[in-house]
Specification:
The complex is a heterodimer of chains A (about 325) and B (about 625). Chain A contains 11 helices and 11 strands. Chain A is of the alpha/beta class and about 325 residues long. In chain A, helix 3 packs across helix 4. The termini of chain A are far apart. In chain B, the strands form 5 sheets. Chain B has a 7-stranded mixed β-sheet with strand order 11-10-12-13-15-14-20, sandwiched between helices. In chain B, strands 3-4-2-5-6-7 form a 6-stranded mixed β-sheet, sandwiched between helices. Chain B has a 4-stranded parallel β-sheet with strand order 19-18-21-22, sandwiched between helices. Chain B has 4 domains: about 220 residues, Pyruvate-ferredoxin oxidoreductase, PFOR, domain III (Pyruvate-ferredoxin Oxidoreductase, domain 3); about 180 residues, Thiamin diphosphate (ThDP)-binding fold, Pyr/PP domains (Rossmann fold), CATH 3.40.50.970; about 70 residues, no CATH class; about 120 residues, Rossmann fold, CATH 3.40.50.920. Classes of the chains: A alpha/beta (about 325), B alpha/beta (about 625).
């Protein structure tokens, strides 16, 4: 599909990026970890969309998820626990032309970084935010995360988690300026690809909650869903996540959901004992903060000097 | 109006206007200061701020207002006791008296409407206070200010400050035309009627003082007409804002915190004219993260905060050190610890700025000593941040932030501006941290540079920014980051000595105490004492040559506005005494037995108090 245009004439690009151009260091996640699949999909989308690696920044916080930038061939910023979003927003603020990916996790985003999550949704800056939601703290070895189900035993709650799990979808849907909320699972590469691609295509803050397996601390935790796709609710719609029929057919449990419908989105997200995947909500019309924050970034030196002189004059006596 | 009244020529005076908050005392005082500066006088103003937005009326805790020191010379600090005070009620004076703001002979112009208040309790309070003030040597003149204002407006509480301005402008022979002009500028957005009413009230006060008060002064200017044209008048936070613009800083990310926020208020009004942007983040952590992100992408960035905000930013500052990200942090100090004294003066964040981060986090720390330096040091800080690939903390404090002073108007220079970001191809073989072994310095790849791709990390890393847990890599990274400070130090000059290079006592200061210390030192030097001072601008790295300077003095003493144990306090020995913050560093760095004199009164250092302290120390030494 590359190199030739549809009319069979040659499309000669000065640079063509292959998957290798998006590859960084060798991924060090555990064998069987869902993160490997997410990384591969991100690299494929970059390749398929021919995004310049030097104009791309993979930003992350701390945790297993947040190792992703190290495995990318783009620029990367492996920041602080919970703080990927302020960094990503700062990078974007005055350089809106950069392509920003954020890799974060259920602990990084929904717990220690929860304040930034809420506000980053409000800023609605154009970036693709992938939350690797494995319902546990992995890097620090099996502590309760905000999405750990109540009763599940961890090292911090050996008798079982004591609090109801947090629902990141309903929370995100409730934030002002929310513009793209989707959910997918790491073990279905087609849906994963289609969802993340749709998120990347959206101009605005696209949050993808990725149900992700941790084979070490939550082995077989999602096995039921893997074995019986009927336990998953596939959201379909012409404006939703485009999934080829041959892949969609694997999901006996489907629901047509218009992603413009916030009320339905909330109902789907809050339903008990349900794992919806697909596009819950999409509003392409929400303004992006970088359109405000980048104002004046290209102002010339003469104009700057004149502005400074004028400022001095305001205080002159 | 008859013949011009006779005026006594004086060298300087300190004026205060105090009231409940919301009565416009600060506006009146600032206007008086501006008029005086425009007339060529040396001026320093400092606000008297209650800690609450709406404290109870007529309460000592609610004292709100302003102090203006006007002189025939360059004024560098708020001075000692006030000469003339205008008070809109008698209760607020109690808190000023408690801070030793007045002396025997201080003249109080007191609103006397409380004497006829329908509430007998208020009448009683007023009478009691009046007697107390007079018994303590204050000279009180009762004036029916509100009654005078009622002739012009049914809402005298709102316009009384202009009447007060008129009175003091008459007392000090201020230029009426300039006053009218200032009032016009103040109310320009409120329409002609409001401007005219305020000018009427000003004139009423002016005429009242002319006809009813027996003291009138003249404070000759110190600036010639020619040099006057090249002055600007700002407070320290406005100066920070001007410096941020003049440095070509691309953006400021901040979260509201007293007393730092007004710098951002100013920038929010004008920053767009130079293409800049103020980002109000969701919290202090996000503010510094946002700035670091922007800086990583090659755009120059700054965050402005105060002590509690610095505490929250700690982890990100360590990241900026670890990953060598240029960043300017303007730290407008207030009283601590914890929420402390939000509106008051302290220099308590020095050690936090230097050593606040867990692990070794060497960074550049500089301190502005004057309002003018607040402007120029931002420009220096931005350049240092980029040249040394490091965070730079610029310390100021509430005294500089709210003090207002005239100083030479700079001219915008192209070389002050940040250069456009480099988007040329990066040499693929060159590591992201291509440390020069001797200096620790390295160029950094900017997002967008082909072949410059690297992953910035807060983990220990190699020169290629690869995560490395081996012993050599971490040792080397720490050495390279520390080496940058030694490199910077090698470019610095030893501090200038104010006075002789040897003597009985050397005073060492930093930050906003400069003016008060030098004023006290000058007085002592004039009296023949062998005392000198130095004032440090670089705290990390420390300015070179200190040990050699200290060696020439019998005693070395720091004067600071932060806590130290008094040497004679219970259980205090030379071994366990906690010294003030600069003293702690200097003692450790120079092994000189440096003493300290400091307090945490929340007030700017006063030259008179410094003078008395030094005098007693010098005379003790002579015995």
């Amino acid at each position: 599909m590359f190199g030739l245009k549809s009319d069979w004439s040659l499309d000669i690009k000065t640079r063509y990026f292959s998957l290798g151009d998006y590859a960084g260091g060798e991924a060090r996640w555990c064998p069987g970890c869902g993160d490997h699949g997410i990384l591969t999909v991100v690299q494929r989308i970059c390749r398929d969309k021919q995004i310049s690696p030097e104009k791309t920044v993979a930003v992350s916080g701390i945790g297993c998820s947040s190792r992703l930038p190290h495995y990318m061939g783009t620029y990367g910023f492996h920041g602080l626990h919970g703080r990927a979003l302020p960094l990503a927003c700062g990078i974007k603020s005055r350089r809106p032309e950069l392509d920003i990916w954020v890799a974060t996790g259920d602990g990084d985003c929904y717990s220690i970084g929860a304040g930034h999550w809420i506000h980053a949704v409000r800023y609605n800056m154009n970036m693709t935010v992938l939350v690797f939601d494995n319902s546990v703290y992995g890097l620090t070895k099996k502590q309760t995360s905000p999405t750990t189900p109540i009763g599940y035993k961890t090292n911090t709650h050996p008798e079982g988690a004591v609090l109801e799990a947090h629902n990141p979808l309903t929370t995100t849907l409730g934030i002002a300026n929310v513009s793209f909320v989707a959910q997918t699972v790491d073990w279905n590469p087609n849906h994963l690809y289609a969802t993340i691609k749709a998120a990347h295509d959206h101009k605005g803050f696209s949050l993808v909650n990725i149900i992700q397996r941790c084979p070490v601390f939550l082995p077989n935790f999602f096995q039921d869903y893997q074995d019986d796709p009927g336990k998953i609710l596939l959201l379909t719609h012409e404006k939703g996540i485009p999934l080829e029929d041959k892949f969609a057919r694997l999901f006996p449990n489907q629901k047509e959901h218009d992603p413009a419908n916030m009320v339905d989105a909330y109902d789907i997200a809050s339903a008990q004992n349900s794992l919806p995947i697909g596009l819950l909500y999409h509003n392409p019309a929400v303004p992006c903060y970088e359109d405000i924050s980048s104002a004046g970034k290209d102002i010339g030196m003469e104009e700057k000097l004149a502005g400074i002189e004028k400022a001095f004059d305001q205080f002159a006596i | 109006m008859g013949n011009p009244i006779p005026r006594k020529q004086i060298n300087e005076h300190i004026v205060e206007i105090v009231s409940d908050s919301g009565e416009g005392a600060q506006k009146a005082g600032q206007t008086f200061g501006n008029i005086s500066a425009k007339m060529g006088n040396g001026v320093w103003t400092v606000e008297i701020i209650p800690a609450e937005i709406k404290p109870p009326a007529r309460s000592p805790a609610g004292a709100s207002g302003i102090r203006i020191r006007v002189g025939s010379q360059y004024i560098t600090n708020m001075g000692d006791a006030a000469d003339i005070v205008v008070a809109l009620n008698e209760q607020v004076l109690y808190s000023r008296i408690a801070t030793h703001a007045y002396k025997k002979g201080t003249v109080i112009l007191l609103e006397s409407k409380w004497l006829t208040d329908p509430n007998p309790k208020i009448v009683e309070q007023y009478k009691t206070a009046l007697q107390e003030f007079r018994d303590n040597g204050l000279i009180v003149h009762e004036i029916q200010m509100e009654k005078e204002c009622l002739k012009y407006t049914p809402k005298p509480r709102l316009g009384k400050n202009m009447f007060v301005l008129g009175m003091i402008c008459n007392i000090y022979d201020r230029d009426v035309k300039k006053a009218y002009h200032e009032i016009e500028n103040t109310f320009i957005h409120k329409g002609v009627k409001v401007i005219e009413l305020n000018q009427q009230l000003f004139q009423a006060g002016y005429d009242f003082a002319e006809n009813n008060l027996e003291f009138h002064y003249n404070i000759p200017p110190w600036q010639t007409e020619d040099s006057k044209n090249k002055l600007i008048v700002t407070n320290g936070n406005q100066a920070l804002g001007l410096g941020i613009m003049a440095s070509g800083m691309d953006m400021v990310a901040m979260y509201p915190i007293t007393p730092a926020t007004s710098a951002s208020h100013y920038l929010a009004e004008v920053y767009h004219t130079v293409g800049g942007f103020v980002h109000q983040a969701e919290d202090e952590i996000a503010a510094v993260g946002f700035a670091i992100g922007s800086s990583f992408a090659g755009k120059t960035a700054c965050t402005i905060t105060s002590g509690p905000g610095l505490a929250l930013k700690t982890e990100f500052l360590a990241l900026a050190v670890m990953a060598e990200i240029p960043l300017v942090v303007c730290l407008v100090q207030r009283g601590g610890p914890s929420t402390g004294l939000p509106t008051k003066v302290e220099q308590g964040d020095l050690l936090a700025a230097l050593y606040g981060e867990p692990g070794d986090a060497p960074k550049i720390v500089i301190a502005a000593a004057t309002i003018e330096e607040c402007l120029h040091f931002v420009i220096m800080a931005r350049k240092l941040a980029e040249a040394f690939r490091s965070p730079v903390i610029l310390l100021t404090d509430a005294n500089l932030a709210t003090g207002v002073q005239p100083y030479p108007r700079p001219e915008a220079k192209a070389e002050w501006l940040a250069s456009p970001i480099d988007q040329s191809n990066w040499d693929k073989d060159m590591p992201a941290y291509n440390w020069d072994e001797k200096t620790g310095l390295s160029a950094r790849p900017i997002v967008g540079q082909v072949d410059g791709q690297y992953v910035l990390t807060g983990l220990a890393h190699t020169n290629r920014s690869k995560v490395a847990y081996d012993r050599e890599s971490n040792q080397r990274g720490c050495e390279m980051r520390s080496r940058k400070l030694a490199t910077l130090c090698s470019t610095l000059k030893p501090p200038k000595i104010n006075g002789e290079a040897e003597g009985d006592l050397l005073v060492v200061g930093w930050g906003s105490t400069l003016g008060a210390i030098e004023e006290a030192i000058s007085k002592l030097q004039a009296e023949g004492y062998r005392v000198s001072s130095i004032h440090l601008r670089f705290l990390s790295p420390l300015e070179p040559g200190l040990k050699a300077i200290f060696a020439k003095f019998t005693n070395v003493l720091t004067i600071e506005i932060n806590y130290s144990d008094k040497a004679d306090a219970p259980f205090i020995t030379p071994d366990n005494r906690r010294y003030s913050q600069l003293a702690t560093i200097l003692r450790a760095q120079t092994l000189v037995d440096i003493d300290c004199w400091s307090n945490v009164h929340g007030q700017p250092m006063q030259p008179g108090l410094i003078y008395e302290e030094l005098l007693s120390r010098l005379n003790q030494g002579a015995e």
